[in-house]
Amino acid sequence: MQNIGLIGQSISASRAPSLHNMLGELKGLPVKYELQELDSPEAAAFKERLASIREQGFIGTNVTFPFKQIAVDSADEVNDSVKKVGSTNTLLLKDGKVCAFNTDYTGFIRGYRTRLGDLPAGKVLMIGAGGVGRAVAFGLFEVGAIELFISDLNVAGAEALAEALNEAGYKTTVVATGDVAAVAKEVDGLVNCTPVGHYKTPGNPLAESAFGGQKWAFDAVYTPLDTEFLKAANAAGLKIVSGFDLFFYQGLDAFEIFTGVEVGDVTPVWDQFREKYDVVSDLI
């Protein structure tokens, strides 16, 4: 049996076990994906659990909130995506080493290109500068972003991300909360990387009147799939990239890293997963 984990907090409803276990079945691999939920957000708790699953022979683990940046310190080797983004969500445990990757970054790029093809991201407003926002922000410049505007209630977090992006040569500006609606009307793409819109934190982080005139929108939230943010974007005629796209493609990338087995044609995997687990959307 090849054991894989997910270390994080509030992960009991994660669909990651379903996706990875199904991929194992499709590829004839004895994969078992197990949630590793922690009560403490401290780095020591993360390191203790990582050491525990390594002793148990796990081949890898995904990492989610609030450990994506903390986990980098536990890596012996870091992939280029981790060097660029500064965080990791995928740790390969192999040959006595911990190797870090960021499939949020690669998964966003794959999801965007699958939905929008060669459409350049252009000027983009991103609300939310936390864990997944960091990976998405760097990914945006790989799909043709020319300028990024970031807004977050945590101004220091937004400024730190903007500084990292500017140092990497990517034009980025922090936007005050009160200016978000006006900036939204001047960009090509709208991105939500806040928890607003999730079942537990319903709503829309952007006023509906701010939608319209843009070309595309992405929401990192995928429970529910059709968030208020994406509904408003769809109603305004924008093309959609969903949080489920990110979830799906980051999962495929992680599975290939963990097992060394290429998934190949993703269409039957997409169709089977959505049917088997009743993943219903009116927008995608």
TrEMBL record:
InterPro entries (alphabetical): Aminoacid_DH-like_N_sf, NAD(P)-bd_dom_sf, Shikimate_DH-bd_N, Shikimate_DH_fam
Catalytic activity, EC: 1.1.1.-
Gene Ontology molecular function, alphabetical: NADP binding; shikimate 3-dehydrogenase (NADP+) activity
Gene Ontology cellular-component annotations: cytosol
All residue ranges annotated as the Shikimate dehydrogenase substrate binding N-terminal domain in the record: 6-91
Keywords: Amino-acid biosynthesis, Aromatic amino acid biosynthesis, NADP, Oxidoreductase
Gene Ontology biological-process entries: aromatic amino acid family biosynthetic process; chorismate biosynthetic process; shikimate metabolic process
Record flagged with keyword Oxidoreductase: yes
Pfam family, one: Shikimate_dh_N
Pathway membership, UniProt: Metabolic intermediate biosynthesis; chorismate biosynthesis; chorismate from D-erythrose 4-phosphate and phosphoenolpyruvate: step 4/7
Protein name as annotated: Quinate/shikimate dehydrogenase
